[in-house]
Amino acid sequence: MAARTPLMAGNWKMNLNHLEAIAHVQKLAFGLSDKDFAEVEVAVLPPFTDLRSVQTLVDGDKLKIKYGAQDISAHDSGAYTGEISGPLLAKLNCAYAVVGHSERRQYHGEDEAICNAKVKAAYRHGLTPILCIGEPLDVRKAGGHVAHTLAQLDGGLKDVPAEQAATVVIAYEPVWAIGTGEVATPDDAQEVCAAIRGRLAELYDDTVADAVRIQYGGSVKSGNVAAIMAQPDVDGALVGGASLDAEEFVKIVRFRD
Ligand code: PEP
């Protein structure tokens, strides 16, 4: 089995202005050591307006923290007022682009076709998509959580070739656990993450399935991250609220301590 480097990514959502972003990344840089970066990949996902500030700090101080955007347009340029394209993000050296976060699906009507177009847009410009999938509460209560999540996986990766799919990051984020304080049990997380890996093997092959990093997201904190990370098919965490506290995020990155 491939050794997958865990990816801890902080989704700041619509928080921290560009000055606060600098202070926050500085705190992370002070808190994290070379040993941390040798064991774990660390990324921040700030609002678009912060990306230039974060880039300047990361480049200027040669920080090992990666960064990316919380969304990406399906289009590369043109009359799409308010959207931010892959070329604009690539120019800022973004490593990642989140696609299909449940808040985008819920408040902006993003469906599988849009998510699929955004995944492809990310790859066109050298960005790694973090494709978010996961079920709402009613679907989980009805026992349809695995089928629902796998249908989102199929839709998001439709016609994405194996060489690209091998590098995608999948974030399993049960909607009922996001921002609610209601964390999935480690067994819940493992059940769905294992099913995602199984589907990747069906869609592609074992090599791709083994290579893909699958994060869990939903009310991750320093107090619950170790048990979730102990699951064999969980390769990292997408952290919302708790990533806004630099000390707490450092503790999450150090989940092995
Ligand atoms: C998220 O925004 O992706 C998320 C998981 O949020 P939280 O950690 O606050 O539940």
Automatic annotation (TrEMBL):
Signal peptide: none annotated. Its EC number is 5.3.1.1. PROSITE patterns: TIM_1, TIM_2. Pathway: Carbohydrate biosynthesis; gluconeogenesis; Carbohydrate degradation; glycolysis; D-glyceraldehyde 3-phosphate from glycerone phosphate: step 1/1. GO terms for molecular function: triose-phosphate isomerase activity. It comes from the Bacteria. The active site is at 101 (electrophile), 173 (proton acceptor). Keywords: Cytoplasm, Gluconeogenesis, Glycolysis, Isomerase. Homodimer. PANTHER family: TRIOSEPHOSPHATE ISOMERASE. This is Triosephosphate isomerase. It comes from Streptomyces marincola.
